[in-house]
Every structure is written in C-alpha cells, then in structure tokens.
Protein: Histidine kinase
Amino acid sequence: MSKSGVIVIIEDDMDDRTFLGEIFKELKLPNELKWFETAESAMDYLCTTFQSIFVIISDTNLPGMGGLEFKKTLDDDPKLRRKSIPFIFYSSVANQADVNNAFLNMTTQGFFKKGPDYQNSKNTIKVILDYWGLCRHPNTQ
Structure:
C-alpha cells in the first residue's frame, strides 16, 4: 500500500458519487481518485494496473457483482491478495449478516454505514483515510 497511491471507489449511485466527490475535494487529498460504477470494472482495473493502491472503498449494493462478492473475488485472487490492499465497505445498508460475512469470511478491514448528513460522512471518510495513512501494513511504502 502506497500512502500516496490511488483511492479506488466503487459506487453506482450518482448522488452518492457527487456527495463523496465533494467530501474528497474538501479534504484536499493528494491521492488520485479512481471511480467505478461496477465491481467488474474495478476488478478489471485492479488486475491490470501498475499503480499503487492506497485503499478501496466499496458500496455493498452494486449492479451485477455486489460488493461482498467483489471482496470475496479479490480475496480469492492470489496476486491481488498478496497486495494486501486495505478494503473498506461504505454503504447505506449495513445489516449485521453482511457485517459478519465481511469480517468472518473475508479480509475486510472496515464496514461503515453512510452518514446521515454531510459532516458525519466527511468525518467518517477522514477517520478512515487518516487511519490508513498512519497504519503499518505489509505493503507500506
């Protein structure tokens, strides 16, 4: 994980993309943002890119392959698993069964429910990124 690497965001809802885009802009992050509407397109990117990835932030409810299936697919790919990319779910739905599945059956590092307002969401995203900016990691550069 490169602390200056790309932040990959998988979000299909245009309103949420706009909302998150404003948060990332206000946080003034130096990281490039890569947006994907589907897990399949994010998977294609992750399998072919030579860029370092800082963190993946994914919704759970996505068209086609859902977020949980996407994470399981990443975990099952030896090349991608070896990269140890931090993976965070950020979703409007955070039922306990999905949370349990994400932590007990996958290498998920966080599961957050989207905030009820802008400030709450901004604080959550900032905490996530600050944590991974400080955290030691197998691929820390």
Observations:
- The mean pLDDT is 91.
- Residues 6-134 form a domain with the Rossmann fold fold (CATH 3.40.50.2300).
- The two ends are 7 Å apart (CA to CA).
- DSSP finds six helices and five strands in the chain.
